Amino acid sequence: MKTLTKMFTLCCLSICLGTFLLADEIDQTKQAFQDKKAEIKASKEAFQLQKNVIQEQIEIVSEYKILGWKIAATSKDGQNHIGVSGPLAGRIFKDKAKFPNSNLILGNNQMAVAEPEFAFKIGTEIKPNNSYYKVKEVMELVETLHLAIELPDSRFNNFSSVGELSLIADNACADQFVFSKPVDMDWKDIDFSNHKVSISNSKFAHQGIGSNVLGDPKIALTWLVNELSQNNILLEKDMIVSTGTCSKPIPVVTGDIVTANFGELGEISLNLK
Question: What is the rounded CA–CA span in Å between residue 181 and residue 99?
Fold first, then answer.
């Protein structure tokens, strides 16, 4: 009888202990969920602030039109450069996009670097979706491939320490771009993750590879599509998405000629005045 009593007592203790442990796990899960909700809410608020700031600019200066989107910090080097832990999305203005060999004014650019990037032009609008888009279905909506050089900039002097949400609201450091004409060779089956890229001026030469861009520029593009979708933003037809730097950003100064080489896909240059 005593043995049965002990066994019953142990069972009760086990059940109680299990209940306490389960309750603790539930509390932890609830807290993690609340933290994630707060993170998502903060990200959406930063996106909305970015949108509001840009809309004000469009109202003030009528020629400001949106050409597309850029992705910042798709590589570890890029993330380290601006002090963030993951990619950020920003808008590209039409008046900030130039043709190869154009003269660009560096001026008081806080960042003073250039980055070689792959860019894709969207052939069909991509609407917000309740489920995540996959790489294959996103790439089926791409019309053309372009080579690009980005000159990012920030309103913040201390851009490397202000944090992700501030940089999202700062349009993800988007500023000037050079885009090539559509690549005229068949690029659909290219292994972008292993495609080598370089960027250079008279003092520096950096080597890079497509895998630096979230593993593959196609993956980066898909990330952008889903990021916009989760924030209920339409990616319009004919918009260009620049997917992020393939190499460590190269320091630049006024007077530089900057060249990005994409191997068999071609090369593009810009002049800093």
Answer: 8
Q: How many helices (H) and strands (E) does the chain have?
A: 5, 13
pLDDT tens per residue, range 47-77: 777 766 765 665 466 466 899 999 999 987 7
Q: How many CB atoms lie within 10 A of CB 110?
A: 14
CA distance 176 to 90: 12
Q: Render pLDDT for 210-261 as a digit per residue (tens, 0 to 9).
A: 999 999 999 999 999 999 999 889 999 999 999 999 999 999 999 999 999 9
Alpha-carbon distance 176 to 98, whole Å?
8
* pTM of the model as a whole: 0.81
Give phi and psi for 245, each to the nearest 5.
-70, 140
Question: Of 153, 183, 191, 184, which Cα lies nearest the Cα of 170?
Answer: 153
16-to-13, 20, 238 alpha-carbon distances in Å: 5, 6, 61
The amino acid occupying position 194 is N
26 — phi, psi (to 5°)? -65, -45
Specify whether the CB–CB gap between 270 and 115 falls below 8 A.
no
Measured CA to CA, the distance from residue 172 to residue 57 in angstroms comes to: 16
Q: Please give the Cα distance from 203 to 251 (Å, whole number).
A: 9
Q: How far is residue 255 CA from its own chain's centroid?
A: 29
Helix, strand or coil, per DSSP, at residue 206: strand
- CA atoms lying within 13 Å on the CB side of residue 220: 31
Question: What is the C-alpha separation between 141 and 237, in angstroms, rounded?
Answer: 9
Going from the C-alpha of 186 to that of each of 144, 222, 252, the distances in angstroms are 10, 21, 33
Residue 75: phi and psi, rounded to 5, are -125, 165
Residue recorded with tokens 């999202």 = 168
Contacts 24+ apart (CB under 8 A), 140-143: 142/221, 143/238
